[in-house]
Amino acid sequence: MSDTNITKKDINEMRENYRAKVFRMMLHIAVIFGGPAVLAFWGGGFLDVKFDTGADTWRLALLGVAFVFSWVLVFRLYNKLNKESRAIEEKAKQVNSED
């Protein structure tokens, strides 16, 4: 489908596909935060016991790293989705201006 032959129906379909993609991304974000947090919690606990720190030093350090890592991934994902959203809206403006 070329950009010059896009109809309102195509735009609505693109928007609907985008909404479904955003919903899947919500689940993906839950995994982005949950996965590293669980690994950091267990891995930090293991390292605290192995090195006998007497506190949650490793656990807290790894949780902090996991938190920052997760936000970096979410920010990159947001930029990708935002770029796609702007492209869809630009095509919608072009179709509406042709009417």
Account of the protein in words:
The protein is mainly alpha-helical and 99 residues long. It has one domain (6-91). It has two helices and no strands. The chain has helices at residues 8-50, 57-98. α1 (8-50) packs antiparallel against α2. The longest helix has 43 residues, at 8-50. It is rod-shaped. The chain starts with 7 loop residues before the first helix and ends with a helix. The mean pLDDT is 92.
What is shown here, in short?
The chain has 99 residues and is mainly α.
Compute the gyration radius: what is it? 22 Å
Mean pLDDT: 92
Low-confidence stretches: none
| CA(first)-CA(last) distance | 19 Å
The total count of helices amounts to: 2
Largest sheet: none
What is the SS-derived class?
mainly alpha
- How many distinct domains? 1
What is the count of β-strands?
0
Measured by DSSP, the beta-strand proportion falls in under 5%
Series of secondary-structure elements, N-terminal to C-terminal: HH
**What is the percent of helical residues?**
over 70%
Shape: rod-shaped
